[in-house]
Amino acid sequence: QVQLVESGGGLVRPGGSLRLSCAASGSLFSGYVVGWYRQAPGKQREFVATITNGGLATYADSAKGRFTISRDNAKKAVYLQMNSLKPEDTAVYYCTLGTVFPYWGQGTQVTVSS
C-alpha cells in the first residue's frame, strides 16, 4: 500500500514562494511518474507538473517558468518549488504517484493573498 503525505502549504503574498514536499511510504516510488495537481475552489482538479523516473519534467502552461518539480528517489519524495506566486495559484495541491491508476495524497492548501 502506498501513502502520500504532502506538506509545505500555507499563506503567502503575491510574488512570494513556497516549496511543497510529498513523502511516499510503501514499496512503490522509483520507476513511477510522480506529479502535482491542484484544485481551486469551485473548479475542477487540474494538472500542474509531472516528472519521470529519469527526470523528464512536464508542466502546465500556468506553471512554466515559475514552478519547478523535482524528485529524490532515495527519500521517496517529490517537490514543487513555486515562485512568483499569484492569487490564481490558490488551491489545494495534491501529490500523485503513477499514471494509469494513480495514488493521491490528501492535499495541502496553498493560499496566495495580500
The oligomeric state of the chains shown is single chain
Strand content: over 45%
**Proportion in helices:** under 10%
Q: What is the H/E order? A: EEEEEEEEEEE
* Overall geometry: globular
Class by SSE composition: mainly beta
Rg estimate, integer Å: 13 Å
Commentary on this structure:
This protein is mostly beta strands. The protein is 0% helix and 50% strand. It has no helices and eleven strands. The strands form two sheets. Strands 2, 4, 5, 6, 9, 10 and 11 form a seven-stranded mixed β-sheet that branches. The protein is globular, with a radius of gyration of 13 Å. The model has no long low-confidence stretch (mean pLDDT 96).
Topology:
Elements (H helix, E strand, L loop, with lengths): L2 E5 L2 E3 L5 E8 L8 E6 L6 E6 L5 E3 L7 E6 L4 E6 L8 E7 L5 E2 L3 E5 L2
Parallel strand pairs: 2-11
Antiparallel strand pairs: 1-3, 3-8, 4-5, 4-9, 5-6, 7-8, 9-10, 9-11
Task: Identify the notable features of this structure and list them briefly.
mainly beta; seven-stranded mixed beta sheet; 11 strands
